[in-house]
Amino acid sequence: MYTCGIDVGSVSTKVVILGKKDNKIASYVIASTGSNSKNAAIKALDDSLKKAGLTDNEIEATVTTGYGRINIPFADQNITEISCHARGAISLFPDLKTVIDIGGQDSKVIKLKDGKPIDFLMNDKCAAGTGRFLEVMARAMEINIEQFAPIFIKTNDKVDITSTCTVFAESEIVSLIGQGIDKNKIIKGLIYSIADKITSMVGRVGLDEPVCMTGGVAKNLGVVKALEENLGIKINIPDEPQITGALGAAYLAQNLH
Amino acid sequence: MGIKDKLKTGVQRNLNQKYIRRLLDIIAKKPVLFAYGSTFSSLSDKYLNIFTIKSLRNAYTDNNHPVGYGSLFLPYEMFHALGITPFLPEVMAGFTAGLGLATQTLKEASSNWYSQDLCTFHRSASGAVELDVFPKPDFVITTNLACDAAQKSFYIHSVKYNIEKNFYLIDVPYEYSKESILYLTGQIKNICMDISSKSGIKLATSKFKEVISLSNEFRKWAIKVNNLRKTLTNYPPYYNGLNFILPFHGLAGTREAVILYNQMYKELKKYLDKEEKEKSGKNKSLKRILWLHLKPYYKNEIFNILERENCRVVFEEINYIYWPELDPERPFESLAKKMLSHFLAGRIDNRINVILKAARDYKIDGAILFSHWGCRQSNGGARIIKDSLNKLNIPTLVLDGDCVDQNNSSQGQVKTRLQGFVEILNS
């Protein structure tokens, strides 16, 4: 039998189907959430079942997480991203003490003790320090977001981005480009602005190693490197960091039956 | 024009305002205040509503007594001894939020250059003053105890109503000492004498003694209520300890406060007796929460979420009885000691000691510090409070939000934080 975890995020919906006996991922899907989170979850689950060659009868329990976790009618339980990301990250790095998750619309730092969350901090209602911030800035600069990491690595200098607000930061960038400032330096500055915000969140919760980073932004090696530099540590990154919440949800579903 | 005439003019002018119409509607139809559902759930609930409404009605319509604006941490015994009707703009800001009218008052404040960083209790109250929907005050009294916004915004209220000469600020020293008591006693006495001379109301010793005795009586029942709550797990469904700010402060020294707290004690005692009789009824899996600071006063889901997750706020720091019994023979000195004893006066250690004592007394599983936007006195201590509770292995959630402005917090984010916190408590 299998369990299923569905992480309905603001940008993407992630599904993980997990074997109950062997704890192996039978399949996973990352799909766009779009405007209807319920439909997105149903479709992503169907795709994931097809990919694994399973039927829904073989799913013993389903746990949903993420901002859209409540509206999924077939879920057995909904659990917050805090518990799910912690559980997912612990399954990959058992000694973990801190999880940094940067998703589409929120970022969080979770402190763990003996594999369980004991404290957490989430960003305030502003989108600064989230994946959305990076997306908006990439669009403003007419650069594909995937180019951010290589540019970060090859660029030595940076321009400080002083605006925290996403909208104001976008105006600031347009203004900097207008002044003829090198785009690469702006990108480096943008990445540091996210890393600085997360660094202060880590400071508030308290830094304990080992640390793991999850969520879509963990795929951006520029942000990871800037954070490593700020914190003075090495950060563990899962092979597919975006599905960590869904993986944790699938693990937590194992406790339901 | 005398004080009473001014008051009358003010009331008449105000009567056309939508805000007052709504308020008088509530008073006339005898239904309920914002936070308590649609019917009176009990006698104490009824008392709370009636006394609150009576206090408001007096401020708006009673022309026989001067109206005094007062900030939260004042000793209201001095108002009652002087026969001044207290009107608490900060409490009214909460009331305004409950009525769904805070958006209007906040908008008005914004149009009048009140900073977005200013605490919304004060910003909303300032907007209401700008809109002229509050009763016209004859005196404005405030203090620098705990709240930094009150001393500024209350002065602006006095300017708005052209009564700067009737503005009083009680300066509470940082340290509790003999010199501080003397200094504060002198201020309270001088203010009372000045108001007495301006209003023509004689400050009778017998009246002051009576008020002080009533305050002691209220204090006695409030302590009894707090002691009962140490063992209670089931509460009357209407009970929320964060709804008693007006009686706890503004009615101290009145018979109403005594009646209310006595009735509350009787009702909670009944619950405790029932619990002890039906041992099986004891809710063992209940998570006991200590609530720090205030709550949102607009419609919100926080307490429903906690209820659904089998969590109960078993104590609120704002209900802690911090002052010693007052001496009716030395009223001014007693009130000075009351102010100086406040746990928000002086060092943060005073507050932490109260919180840690409450954590032990009420056997709490977790604490929630509602971090109200712009409230420096409360938010400033968040880190050290959290660390102190964590040392006792008590998880603490610092929940960012706004008590008055519903546009300043997202219900979805609040829900995720609360659920995440409960998951930690249950893990």
Mean pLDDT of chain B: 88
**Compute the gyration radius of chain A: what is it?**
19 Å
Name the quaternary structure.
heterodimer
Indicate the CATH architecture of one domain in chain B.
3-Layer(aba) Sandwich
Q: Give the helix level of chain A as a range of percent.
A: 40-55%
Count of discrete alpha- or pi-helical segments spanning 4 or more residues of chain A: 8
What overall geometry of chain B do the principal axes of the alpha carbons give?
Answer: globular
- What is the β-strand count of chain A? 10
- Widest sheet: strand ordering of chain A: 3-2-1-4-5
Largest sheet of chain B: 4 strands, parallel
Pair of chains with the largest interface and how many residues each contributes: A-B, 16 and 15 residues
CATH topology of chain A: Nucleotidyltransferase, domain 5
* Portion in beta strands of chain A: 15-25%
Order of helices and strands of chain B: HHHEHEHHHEHEHHHHEHEHHEHHEH
CATH superfamily of chain A: ATPase, nucleotide binding domain
The CATH class designation of one domain in chain B is Alpha Beta
Count of helical stretches of chain B: 18
Average pLDDT of chain A works out at: 91
Unreliable segments of chain B (pLDDT under 50, ≥5 consecutive)?
A: 1-16, 27-38
Span of the ends, CA to CA of chain B:
67 Å
* CATH overall fold name of one domain in chain B: Rossmann fold
